[in-house]
């Protein structure tokens, strides 16, 4: 695992889009947009939004033997992040990049409108009930060919070590994929809340790092 560099942003965005396009969140955001168009503009939007995390958080990656990215994890102090949570990077991109001018306004408007149900299920501060200042994992993905090879463990254990070294008392994360929950439980996370809004259910987990910690 290493810290990502600016030159990794295009590959990082392609990795994230490829892994999450099949998931409920991006399917909702790109609803009504044909897959070819989504795969053309999606990585562009994510690449621009990665600047949000490069400036406000930590971006870790693992390299595959052929030099491509095998996995990535994005973390940050939640106090430095937008209250819009995972959609914050998209809004950041809208405000900070001229490159989006090449994408029709109608498509950007549609994506923002589609994002409302995702915003509705997400809480930016649910963890405050248990811990005032956790380290926050905002994104986590492993490329399909490298799932089950130890990349997920390397990234998660690396993030846990990093957060502990920085003195954070816990790590917080959310997932919209129920099938991801057992993996996080395996690493010691505790499922603290399950919240449903419309067709979306968010699973909210917390990993204590310091003892005693009443979470």
Give me the secondary-structure topology:
Elements: E1 2-3, H1 9-20, H2 24-29, H3 35-56, E2 58-63, E3 69-76, H4 88-96, H5 105-114, H6 116-121, E4 135-142, H7 151-165, E5 170-175, H8 181-186, E6 190-197, E7 200-208
Parallel strand pairs: 4-5
Antiparallel strand pairs: 1-2, 2-3, 3-4, 5-7, 6-7
SS content category: alpha+beta
- Helix and strand pattern: EHHHEEHHHEHEHEE
Strand content: 15-25%
**How are the strands of the largest sheet arranged?**
1-2-3-4-5-7-6
Give the low-confidence spans: none
Radius of gyration over all CA atoms, rounded = 17 Å
What is the terminal separation in angstroms? 29 Å
**Number of DSSP-assigned strands:** 7
Work out the helicity level. Answer: 40-55%
Largest sheet geometry: 7 strands, mixed
- Determine the number of helices (DSSP H or I, runs of at least 4 residues): 8
Shape: globular
Estimate the mean pLDDT confidence.
86
